[in-house]
Design a protein that fits this description.
Blueprint (H helix, E strand, L loop, with lengths): L1 H36 L25 H31 L1 H5 L1 H15 L3 H12 L3 H28 L2 H8 L4 H37 L11 H9 L6 H28 L29 E10 L2 E11 L4 E5 L6 H8 L8 E3 L2 E4 L2 E2 L8 H7 E4 L3 H4 L6 H12 L4 H14 L5 H5 L8 H12 L6 E5 L7 H18 L2 E5 L3 H7 L2 E6 L2 E7 L10 H8 L40 H5 L5 E3 L3 E3 L7 H10 L1
Parallel strand pairs: 3-9, 3-10, 7-8, 8-9
Antiparallel strand pairs: 1-2, 1-4, 1-5, 5-6, 10-11, 11-13, 12-13
Length: 619
């Protein structure tokens, strides 16, 4: 009863109608075939009677029996055409994933052109091409419905493709086709099922229309459309004979349409969770870490999209066991830098670098050549754990995918490893939790599960992109301790990205401060709060209140707004917001140069910052 209440009266009506249609399609020819084919010259064109409920046709055959018998052919051909349209639509709609972006762009253009035409008009066009008859009608309707289904598939796939769990799968080295089958299609299947069910009703109407026009089923076979055409010739003599076939088409189409949502719920798919380019930037100073000692070495990294360059010449390095933080306001290029390092920037984005090495291997070539390295030795932990985990797959299965893809592990051994990793990140009752869906985890558990996924293959480097932003302070502390323990116990490098200066100062030994797509300061974490030499770093620290903040005064803010990435100024990008700006700052962009031995600063007035800031605070 509870399930029936959830379905609702419309859903119940649709199910009843659909069951009746299916039963007639199966039993109709078995029960009424002889009566439908019996010719009786004495009963030609009779009206409704007790012997013939809706009358007879030109050969004295019982019209009602013929309508019942025609159910099998009408529904069967409509479902066949729908299946053809769904398969063709899936291939077209997922063309970018299946055939690559370049071919997919041309296929998408073809879809847009075909969607501009009504389905029935396309069906008539294809019917002429494929010829008269049932086979030609199936092909015509199938190919006519494919563009609409392809457009829906394309739109839904694009929405899923931007989710973090897709990026995580790509970091793990999962191939495009496998990502499509295991991650994209299961998440859009509910909408596709509803659409396919509704399209079945539309295909039924389209098939009846073609048969009515003489382009579909040919004699001696008959479907509802052909019976409707025959009955229409005698509509003034026997209206019931014509209306019965039309009513059958309407009721069957309504059954498919009303059942769409019920089908999606029944199979359990409903989720429970729920410009001009700027001139090339000058090459930044090389990181001070020797090449032999660097786990990750990046020099002059740039990310370019059409009309904009949001990352401009970033240089950094990470040693084994070292924790390096990246801080900055939203839009400063922190996450894009991480994605570029993990080779997750897709066209039309373009990544260039003078040097991009991980574990001594140059990552600037074809990403497919480095898939195994990135999938096993580099782990990504994203900001929102709910979007980082596939909502329709068991958590354990998602973790196991890493070692099954790269280590060739069996299903059983991969599952055991997943349970072990969940236990390692302090998820209690790991065996039971591994069999649950992400919505059954709390926020902190989901984030720990993401970290567990990252250490499935014993990575050398973990890139954590704001992993504690959505968590409360208690869970945040647990996640930070977990990352610290993994880093120290397994000598793993950590690249920690956050906008929280305090957290980065606690977790990392070295901090990179990013502004307007560039690193403007690279300094030890111990100097972050007291001895920063860039005005922007000072402003970030001052904007974070602490226990000594004067509550009677307004909170400190950074005046102004970051510059538009499409129109960076010729001088220092922070000049318009800086209290220490000079004429030189507005005309010359300071390079990121070594300063005071253990740091790098991109500021013309770095040596004067402490005294100038102190004087400003005293005044």
């Amino acid at each position: 009863m509870r399930g029936l209440r959830r379905i609702g009266p419309l859903g119940i009506s649709g199910l009843v109608l659909l069951v009746l249609v299916v039963a007639l399609a199966i039993a109709g020819p078995l029960i009424w075939q002889d009566r439908a084919d019996a010719i009786n010259p004495a009963e030609i064109l009779r009206g409704p009677s007790g012997a013939h409920w809706v009358g007879t046709d030109q050969l004295g055959r019982d019209i009602f029996a013929r309508v019942l018998v025609a159910t099998r052919l009408s529904v069967g051909l409509a479902l066949l055409a729908t299946a053809l349209g769904v398969v063709a639509g899936l291939l077209l709609g997922t063309s970018t994933a299946v055939f690559g972006r370049r071919v997919g762009r041309w296929i998408a253009t073809l879809i847009n052109i075909m969607v501009a035409f009504p389905n029935l008009l396309l069906a008539l066009f294809f019917a002429v091409i494929f010829g008269v008859g049932a086979t030609g009608a199936v092909l015509a309707i199938g190919f006519a419905t494919a563009p609409g289904f392809a457009r829906i598939t394309q739109t839904l796939s694009a929405a899923i493709a931007g989710r973090d769990f897709i990026a995580a799968a790509r970091v793990a080295g999962v191939g495009r086709f496998r990502i499509l089958l295991r991650h994209v299609l299961p998440n859009i299947a509910e909408s596709l099922v509803v659409t396919a069910t509704i399209q079945a009703g539309g295909a039924l109407l389209a098939f009846a229309s073609l048969s009515f026009l003489g382009l579909g089923v040919q004699a001696p076979s008959y479907d509802w459309g052909r019976l409707l055409g025959e009955g229409l010739q005698q509509i003034y003599i026997n209206p019931a004979g014509a209306l019965t076939a039309g009513l059958a088409v309407v009721l069957a189409a309504m059954a498919f349409n009303l059942t769409g949502e019920v089908v999606a719920r029944a199979i359990g798919l409903r989720s429970n969770a729920t410009g001009t380019l700027a001139a090339p930037e000058p090459s930044a100073a090389e990181p001070t870490v020797p090449a032999a000692d660097a786990l990750l070495a990046v020099h002059n990294l740039q990310v370019t999209f059409p009309g904009v360059r949001p990352v401009r010449g970033v240089s950094l390095s990470v040693r084994r066991g070292e924790a390096v933080g990246i801080v900055g306001e939203s839009g400063s290029g922190k996450s894009l830098t991480a994605l570029a390092i993990a080779r997750l920037i897709e066209a039309p984005g373009e990544v260039t670098a003078d040097r991009l090495e991980f574990l001594g291997e140059d990552l600037r070539g074809d990403v497919r050549a480095h898939r195994r390295l990135l999938g096993t030795s580099l782990a990504m932990v994203f900001q929102d754990p709910m979007t980082s985990l596939n909502p329709v797959q068991r958590v354990g299965r998602q973790l196991a995918e890493v070692v099954r893809t790269h280590a060739g592990a069996t299903r059983r051994s991969a599952w055991a490893r997943a349970v072990d990793r969940l236990a390692a990140v302090r998820i209690t009752d790991a065996a039971r939790r591994a069999a649950q869906l992400p919505h059954e985890f709390s926020g902190g558990m989901r984030q720990r599960a993401m970290i567990g996924m990252g250490v499935m293959a014993n990575p050398a480097l973990i890139i954590a992109d704001e992993p504690t932003t959505a968590l409360d302070v208690t869970v945040q502390k647990q996640v930070l301790e977990l990352l610290h323990n993994i880093r120290t116990a397994e000598d793993v490098g950590l690249l920690f990205i956050s906008h929280d200066v305090t957290v980065v100062g606690q977790v990392c030994s070295r901090v990179l401060v990013m502004y307007a797509g560039r690193v403007v300061e690279d300094l030890p974490a111990t100097a972050l709060r007291t001895d920063a030499r860039h005005p922007y770093t000072r402003a970030l620290v001052a904007a974070v209140p602490d226990m000594e903040t004067d509550r009677s005064q307004p909170l400190a803010v950074i005046p102004g707004r970051p510059p538009d990435p499409r129109d960076f100024p010729s001088g220092c990008a922070f000049a318009d917001r800086c209290p220490l700006v000079t004429d030189r700052c507005r005309t010359e962009d300071p390079p990121l140069d070594a300063f005071d031995g253990d740091r790098r600063v991109a500021c013309w007035n770095a040596a004067l910052v402490p005294s100038l800031i102190a004087n400003g605070e005293q005044s």
